[in-house]
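Fold this sequence, please.
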Amino acid sequence: MRDDVRPGHAGARLLVDELRGGRVLLRHATGEDVDAIAAILAEPEVARWWGDHDAGRVRQELIEDPGVEAFAIEVGGDLAGVLLVAEENDPDYRHAGLDISLATAHQDRGLGREALRVVIDHLADERGHHRFTIDPAVENERAIRCYAAVGFRPAGVMRRYWRDPDGTWRDGLLMDMLADERL
């Protein structure tokens, strides 16, 4: 594991250069990935949950934000999606929050579950995290099934948690998982 500072991220530490699963490669997203990630987030079935993410917003919120580690998810050499990790390192509240999105062509193939398992295994086994959270929209049944298959459990509904692209406030489902509950 490297403790290098990632260029452009004041004080941000790399988790690792890359993580590998059976079919997925997770590597740190870079400025070169901005347009491809923006294109994925603009796909109608993805944008439905993520809202508008042009290249500028992707760069600012996913690549340059020092509080987020953004991994590009590659499958067979193609960029298939993005996985975000936000670590809380206060020893009294230590956990990692996750978020993931896959291009429509890569959904319903178990790739999201695999990518989540790979990063969770790393965060638990190498970084010492014991708890993980993820927060899909209550209506995002596909995501909820994926997260449950990894071991996440509903913890509660966060009312009017996120703003839909049409401006309507929507509920989110807080899900969490302890490291020893991994499936």
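Residues 18-133 form a domain with the Aminopeptidase fold (CATH 3.40.630.30). Residues 1-12 have pLDDT under 50 and may be disordered.
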